[in-house]
Amino acid sequence: MQATAQQLSGPSIETLETMLDVTYTWGYQETRAKLRDLYDKAVHAQWISDEVLPWDTNVDLEAPTAPEQLMPLFGSSLYEKMTPKERTALNIQSFSWTLSQFLHGEQGALLATAQLVDSVGDIDSKLYAGSQVADEARHVDVYNRYIHSKIGFSYPVNTHLKTLLDLILKDSRWDMKFLGMQIMVEGLALAAFGMIRNNTKEPLLKQLTAYVMGDEARHVAFGVLSLRDYYKEQPESVKREREDFVYEAARLMRDRFLFQEVWERQGLPVKECMDIALHSQGQQMFRQMLFAKIVPAIKKMDLLSDRQRQRFAELGILQFESWADPLADVEQSPKGAVSARF
């Protein structure tokens, strides 16, 4: 029996007490050329979902959403014992769970970027952050619409994602909001969306994802532009604290993709299923690829010390340090272009 939105959604309102300085910026002529260029790209790349997305598409939920090898339980004795009908039902639940977490992450990005508008100290950063608020609102809208009009039910926010979002929103330091949201959360989303776009055969989701990716690449570039020189001027103690935050955020985001709520909902042995998902070859590859944009961005910001390299190696993600970062992708794209590259 399929769950209803009411059964799975959790509390509809939650208030978080935060501390944040609000900064006026009176130096309107003191512009930062690269940020101004990024803002111009954002203005030209705005899109309206009703005009560019085929919302009348009939989504077949029983069709595979990804290669079977990427299914969290694939290859396990539990999976082998399932009937085709049970596997299809599990796939639908996992699909809803995954997109629900994207939806919750986009709301976190909406709230965090609104805080950046208040706290950043130059006018070009405020203007770009304002354009990103519009992007994030659009992302919340399209994922909410897709989930509830095409799938029919959603999942509450995963506890690991919620922990990270709360840390970012509660922190009063502007650079930690950039580091947590623009680099870590948005960087992971950019990579995850790239894999979904490359693997899904569902036309509406494929187009929706491509448009969102164009926005997300600029969002991560905003973080890299804002932080790439900042940490080089900071004392070692500050850089070590930021490296520790990055590492813990990486662990939280890795553990986020263990589908705990799906196993609970389906009445499956939760700990066993989480262990299978953690050690699944397909899922390990998926989780590693999530950091393909994060690691080179971290390196560009001088937060990849030998200590951090060792920890990234233990997470299996150090190999991405020489990959292109989103700033390079955006700088090479024409004004207003929607980048669909991964």
Task: Please explain how this structure is put together.
The protein has 16 helices and no strands. The longest helix has 36 residues, at 84-119. Helix 10 packs parallel to helix 15. The protein has a domain at 158-332. Residues 338-342 have low confidence and may be disordered. With 342 residues, the chain is mostly helical. The radius of gyration is 20 Å and the shape is globular.
Number of helices: 16
The share of residues in helices is 55-70%
N-to-C SSE string, H for helix and E for strand: HHHHHHHHHHHHHHHH
Q: Could you describe the largest sheet, including whether it forms a barrel?
A: none
Structural class: mainly alpha
Topology diagram in text:
Layout (H helix, E strand, L loop, with lengths): L4 H5 L23 H12 L4 H4 L24 H5 L2 H36 L3 H29 L7 H12 L3 H26 L3 H25 L8 H21 L3 H6 L4 H10 L1 H9 L4 H7 L5 H10 L10 H7 L10
Give the gist of this structure.
The chain is an all-alpha fold and 342 residues long. The protein contains 16 helices and no strands.
List keywords for this structure.
342 residues; mainly alpha; 65% helix; 0% strand; globular; disordered C terminus
